[in-house]
Amino acid sequence: MHFAGILPEDAPDPRRGIAEVLKMMPIPVVEFAEQRSIENTDLGVGSATSADGYTAMTVSVSATLWRNPEDKSDPVNLAELDDDTRRAIEEVPPWPRPAWLIELVERMRFPHLWEAVRTSWHRDESDLSTLEYLLVHHTRHVLVNQFRTELALEMHDWDSPLLPSESAVRHGAFVSIDGQDVVGAEIDSDHFVYALGAKLSSGGTLTAVVPREHLRYINLSFASRC
């Protein structure tokens, strides 16, 4: 979420609006299964419509990572921050801020799994709803937005040869969803991220993209959001 200008102390939490849109999702949303090292936090919703209503919806779940969940005050839990981010956290403005904004700013101190888990629903099957397409699209989305500097990419370099294509998708990977192993697919060839996905019994598709540096702290299992 990005905000500009001065927000009044009573400014409404934008997550409430997202929660209302989320009610229109035709299938259950999937997130990381409950585990001490992961705190599912923000939701993002994208959709497409026609005269007949929604034709597609995507819900992304972001999460905070705790390297030492037993002691959240342990400095090992802190993220490596650039100067601009550190300044944004530490410089407290002279005016009161909404509680939800303070919460979001404080959370920036810790590693953030940005839009790590996606649930995608399409009313009609097409080339844009295949597991292969969605897994590659999600992987590229994370790389272009989170690893642009490392890959020397511009904001819209979606077709860069440095990014994975469908040829990188390997089928036969097992994905744990609601306690059941489902046969899905993975992208295990990228230097910066690991991606995993599967078709859901609800008719949608799960994809997950996680930075490799965080994999050792995470159980890559998933559950329907309550």
Write up what this structure looks like:
- A hairpin with a 2-residue loop joins β2 (38-50) and β3 (53-65).
- The chain is α+β, with helices and mostly antiparallel strands.
- The chain starts with 13 loop residues before the first helix and ends with a strand.
- The mean pLDDT is 92.
- The chain has helices at 14-22, 83-90, 99-107, 131-146, 148-151; strands at residues 30-32, 38-50, 53-65, 112-122, 170-177, 180-187, 193-199, 205-211, 221-224.
- The protein contains five helices and nine strands; from the N terminus they run αβββααβααβββββ.
- The protein has a nine-stranded mixed sheet, with helices on both faces.
Question: How would you describe this structure in keywords?
Answer:
226 residues; alpha+beta; nine-stranded mixed sheet; 5 helices; 9 strands
Strand order of the largest sheet: 1-9-5-6-7-8-4-3-2
Strand content: 25-35%
Series of secondary-structure elements, N-terminal to C-terminal: HEEEHHEHHEEEEE
Whole-Å distance between the termini?
Answer: 23 Å
Number of E-type strands: 9
Q: Give helix % range.
A: 10-25%
